[in-house]
Design brief:
Layout lengths: L4 E7 L7 E7 L18 H18 L6 E4 L15 E6 L7 E2 L2 E2 L1 H8 L2 E3 L2 E9 L5 H4 L17 E12 L7 E2 L1 H8 L4 H21 L3 E12 L2 E5 L9 E4 L2 E2 L3 H10 L1 H17 L17 H19 L9 H8 L3
Antiparallel strand pairs: 1-2, 2-4, 3-4, 5-6, 7-11, 8-9, 8-11, 9-10, 11-12, 11-13, 13-14
Helix pairs in contact: 1-8, 8-9
């Protein structure tokens, strides 16, 4: 898996009761499903935790159920701490193993072990715009999404209505699903409920972004199923889970992704080839087949991206959590990376 959060269990979930745990947000970063990259981005972990907690509290004020319990060792509300937190306290559900046998993942086995208290093995993606670099450009034509044009332009495109899609969560390579397969993978959770929940999360985050001067382009949620109720899980509305823009410039992990495409195209191509080979061979692991490793980021890029995460978190939350330049200056610094 490619998570850059460390996960601690305080009380194990059972078949009939949720448990308790924590996310510890590190300064690691991951692009192209690689996992932890060769270096770290200072302030990144705390900025993601702060934005995640802010959005969870915003969602709950709007009546959206989540697994959020608070921040820091005492699991308090964000307003009760003075410094940007790194720990986010959460309610835990069960996450069974997903067997991979004879070239296929066994979701029936996953759900037999899950019962009625589990993390739904899907990512629910919502899109408001189609920025440069979006996978939607490779998978469909503009008219399929309500746009009156034949080809994708060189600049971002606003969608007339948000688009919701479903992709896999626990497979070695993420893949997008049609609704029939997504419904099967979701298990007892109703796909329509996931769709409605994703659109509500999208609405709340989009409104907050607009109020703070950002454009919310796309994002994703993960959800858990607890005794018939679907709740928002993982973390929501950060610069890793979502794509934001500010004054026409990407303000998200997409900055690093696009940098690697320009500065280390050999590694990016090697990743693509390794994934394709794994697909051909019907095997799950592709990293061991990759012919190259990523180069570390130059120090100047690390500094610029660190400032972007910190300044962006300050601006999005309306707080002064970090000693960082104004968001306009931080955004300008990454335009030429």
């Amino acid at each position: 898996m490619t998570s850059v959060k460390e996960f601690r269990v305080e009380r194990e979930p059972t078949a009939t009761a949720t448990g308790r745990g924590r996310f510890d947000f590190t300064d690691d970063y991951s692009v192209f499903d690689w996992g932890a990259m060769p270096d770290r981005i200072p302030k990144k972990g705390r900025s993601l935790c702060t934005m995640g907690a802010f959005n969870f509290e915003l969602l709950e004020s709007e009546g959206v159920s989540t697994h959020y319990r608070g921040v820091g060792p005492d699991a308090v509300q964000l307003s009760a701490v003075d410094d940007a937190p790194r720990e986010l306290a959460i309610e835990l559900v069960r996450v069974p193993d997903l067997p991979f046998e004879e070239g296929a993942y066994d979701y029936d086995a996953f759900h037999r072990a899950a019962g009625n208290n589990y993390l739904i093995p899907l990512e629910i993606v919502f899109r408001n715009t189609v920025p440069v670099g979006s996978s939607l450009r490779r998978r469909g034509k503009p008219r399929e999404y309500g746009l009156d044009r034949g080809d994708w332009p060189e600049e971002p495109v606003d969608l007339p209505d948000p688009v919701v899609e479903f992709s896999t969560k626990y497979e070695e390579q993420d893949r997008y699903l049609d609704r029939a397969e997504a419904n099967r993978i979701a298990g007892a959770a109703a796909l329509d409920d996931l769709d409605v929940l994703a659109r509500e999360v999208n609405r709340v985050v989009t409104d907050r972004a607009e109020n703070a001067g950002f454009v919310h382009e796309d994002g994703k949620i993960e959800c858990c199923y607890v005794d018939g109720e679907v709740k928002v899980a993982d973390v929501v509305g950060t610069f890793d889970e979502n794509r934001f823009a500010y004054d026409g410039q990407e303000v998200s992990k997409e900055v690093v992704r696009q940098y690697y495409k320009r500065a280390d195209p050999g590694w990016v191509e090697a990743v693509s080839e390794a994934k394709a080979e794994a697909d051909r061979l019907d095997v799950a692991d592709w990293r061991d087949r990759c012919a190259a490793d990523p180069d570390p980021l130059p120090a100047s890029v690390v500094t610029a991206v660190s400032d972007l995460y910190a300044a962006g978190a300050n601006a999005y939350t309306g707080g002064s959590w970090f000693d960082a330049p104004p968001v306009t200056d931080a955004v300008d610094a990454v335009r030429t990376l």
